[in-house]
Specification:
- The structure holds two protein chains of two kinds.
- Chain A is an alpha/beta fold.
- Chain A is built from nine helices and 17 strands.
- In chain A, the strands form four sheets. Chain A has a seven-stranded parallel β-sheet, sandwiched between helices.
- Chain B has one domain (2-198): Rossmann fold (3-Layer(aba) Sandwich).
- In chain B, strand 6, helix 2 (68-77) and strand 7 form a beta-alpha-beta unit.
- The chains are: A alpha/beta, B alpha/beta.
- Strand 9 (137-142) of chain A pairs antiparallel with strand 14 (208-213) of chain B.
- The structure holds flavin-adenine dinucleotide (FAD) and adenosine monophosphate.
- Residues 203-205, 229-232, 245-248, 260-262, 264, 266-267, 270, 281-283, 286, 299-301 of chain A line the site of flavin-adenine dinucleotide (FAD).
- Residues 6-8, 36, 38-39, 60-63, 89, 92, 95, 111-112, 114-115, 118-123 of chain B line the site of adenosine monophosphate.
Amino acid sequence: MSLVVFIEFADGVYKKSSLEALSMARSLAESTQQKVVAVQLNGPCDSQILGQHGAHKVLHNGSDLGAFAADSWGKALAQMCQETQAEVVIISNTYSGKSLAPRVAHELKADMASQVVSMPETSNGFRVKRSVFSGKAFAWVQLTSPIKVLALTPNSFPIQTWNESASLETTQVSASSTIQVESVQKVSGKIPLTEAEIVVSGGRGMKGPEHWGMIETLANQLGAATACSKPVSDMGWRPHSEHVGQTGITIKPNLYIAVGISGAIQHLAGVSSSKVIVAINKDPEAPFFKAADYGIVGDAFEVLPQLIEASK
Amino acid sequence: MNILVCISVVPDTTTKISFTDNDTAFQTSGVQFILNPYDELALTRGLEIAEANGGKVTVVHVGLSDSEAVIRKALSMGAEAAIRINAAPTDAQQVASELAAIAGGYDLILTGRESIDYNGGLICGLLGAALNIPSINVVTRIDYINGTWSFDRDIDGGKESVSVQGPCVASAQKDLCEPRIPNMRGIMAARTKPLTVLEPKNNASGVTYTQFELPAPKQGVKLIDPSQAAELISLLKNEAKVL
Ligand SMILES: Cc1cc2nc3c(=O)[nH]c(=O)nc-3n(C[C@H](O)[C@H](O)[C@H](O)COP(=O)(O)OP(=O)(O)OC[C@H]3O[C@@H](n4cnc5c(N)ncnc54)[C@H](O)[C@@H]3O)c2cc1C
Ligand SMILES: Nc1ncnc2c1ncn2[C@@H]1O[C@H](COP(=O)(O)O)[C@@H](O)[C@H]1O
């Protein structure tokens, strides 16, 4: 019996969220005496890194599955889960992870939960906590099937290290997809918003796209990703991929800095799970101050230069 | 060309979330229910494609009769027919198995990226797996070109373009289109369009929601004088320990 973690390898590195999933699996395994198996379907494999982050064993697919596609990769992963008699399969709740997880769950006839935000409770059945209502609440759900599939939200479990190495086994699993990938455009050099530990975000109070240099400079200095409110992306000041909130992306960074954003309920829905929230707004009545841990009532154009200077 | 759009009914985005029965159930009283915003996009784009290619759009919803007003809204946007599967939705796996029972034979099946209440985001993949057809999630463009479905989809840290021949299921992401607003003629026409009610076939069970909780309330905001903004950085470093 084992805990399987799907390892995402992209742009030459292991995804941070996969190492988080691995760390959570290992912590869970300590109490249930199960083995943690890291399954990697593509790319070169570094079993040492995976071992350090919690894998007892690494199962590496030696045959080329081609570009990521939910159907073929889902079949391949399900097959490898069966080989290792997986009881729990943990996948990161990323775009690829979330497309893969339901396909794997279907193949394994497994109950599944997405947007899982903490380690499962196994003392009384198998229960997981997931975020619902776009981050406005949490729910505990009970999974009862023999195999369970979880999609773990990035930044939900800290990466840990173990002073151990993992055994490596290579298999040959192939599967083909009818999805043809025509082209891929990656935004290079940017921290993906969903994985970022720090996010600096601007709203309509920034007045126009020409002032985003300040947001970007602060973000760069803090190692942060940038985000924005819905009207900002609707007006084309920033790309839609940066829009956070109920109808945008839900994020869960350690630190969220909101500049010139009022704090409407739909915006807060996407960011309220952030560990620490800073609101910078010239209106002392802005609702964001009720949801924030730190606040500065002031003009963004006077506050931001000071923050940039102080974080150099 | 036949297109099926799966629609869910969710609390309005301004809803203040609360729970009843010792936090075991969502408090629905006073809540206004709407068509899931992502499903509005799926339906709008489905209609545009059907209109351009001489096709027909059917909407399907798994739910009880109280959602018929929302189903009528979908019909007033331009769908030709609606199916309601008469079961209270309890879980993505249950919903997907009911949808799969009627979803065969369509050229394209659309869902939203996620429902904004339970945010599962799973139906697209579950349905694709159950029907053994490709599933493409979070799509920001759908075109039908020379018999081939062509999509742009969000990937982690970027975008990709993919194409599929033959039936597939895709989930709508926000950039897909502007949602269509029903006009008076559409609203009148919707009254007489067929809404078929089917009984559930599979009665599959999935996960059970046992308890809800609200995020811990914030302790209150600590204000920093705007002329001393630099102090924020040291507080974040030394007090909050997030830098
Ligand atoms: C169905 C629906 C879904 C929605 N989904 C989302 C969503 O997902 N995400 C989202 O963000 N919104 C969403 N909204 C919109 C939301 O209701 C708000 O309208 C939006 O969040 C407001 O954006 P904002 O705070 O940038 O702009 P505003 O509300 O205009 O606020 C600007 C703020 O900047 C402050 N300000 C102005 N000048 C300065 C200055 N010089 N320095 C400092 N502060 C300044 C002002 O005091 C004000 O508080 C949704 C709305 C609906 C109806
Ligand atoms: N009860 C339902 N009936 C029909 N379609 C649904 C239902 N629930 C969810 N869906 C579809 O599945 C999508 C994703 O929902 P979910 O997996 O619940 O986040 C929604 O945007 C709808 O298109």
